[in-house]
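sry for the spam today, last one i promise. struct tokens for design, 147 residues
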């Protein structure tokens, strides 16, 4: 191919792709107050993306004073985002809580489509551990966990 043909083809591609992309651009403001709050306030506290399943755990405050203490401490809910790994994955989102000072202690067991983790929570002098099993379809409390 001649250099002038290559330049012309490249120029036409850039011009037409820019025109088509710009004509489809749309910006909207969301009115979903819960989504707005979560996306602005959530902290990613743990992630495990091995094998065929990805799990991300976010901590979201329930607001000052929600823990019920005079010092105004907040309780938190955990958002557990579960996704298959690959193109066009199935995805789910689960919410659990409220907890005081929740932290992911450790990932216990990893299977192809199931992961088990432990979450520590509670005041500094009264910590408890909760074991959860997560799949794409559900998150459930594992009775083997120490509570």
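last one done:
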């Amino acid at each position: 191919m001649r250099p002038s043909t290559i330049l012309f083809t490249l120029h036409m591609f850039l011009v037409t792709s820019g025109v088509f992309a710009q004509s489809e651009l749309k910006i909207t403001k969301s009115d979903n107050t819960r989504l707005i709050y979560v996306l602005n306030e959530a902290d990613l506290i743990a992630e495990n993306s091995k094998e065929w399943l990805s799990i991300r755990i976010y901590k979201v405050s329930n607001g000052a004073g929600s823990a019920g203490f005079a010092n105004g401490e907040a309780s938190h809910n955990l958002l557990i985002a579960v996704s298959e790994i690959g193109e066009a994955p199935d995805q789910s989102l689960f919410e659990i809580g409220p907890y005081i000072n929740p932290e992911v202690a450790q990932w216990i067991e990893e299977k192809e489509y199931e992961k088990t983790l432990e979450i520590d929570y509670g005041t500094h002098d009264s910590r408890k551990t909760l074991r959860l099993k997560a799949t794409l379809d559900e998150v459930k409390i594992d009775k083997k966990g120490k509570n």
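The helical segments are 3-23, 33-41. ok im logging off now
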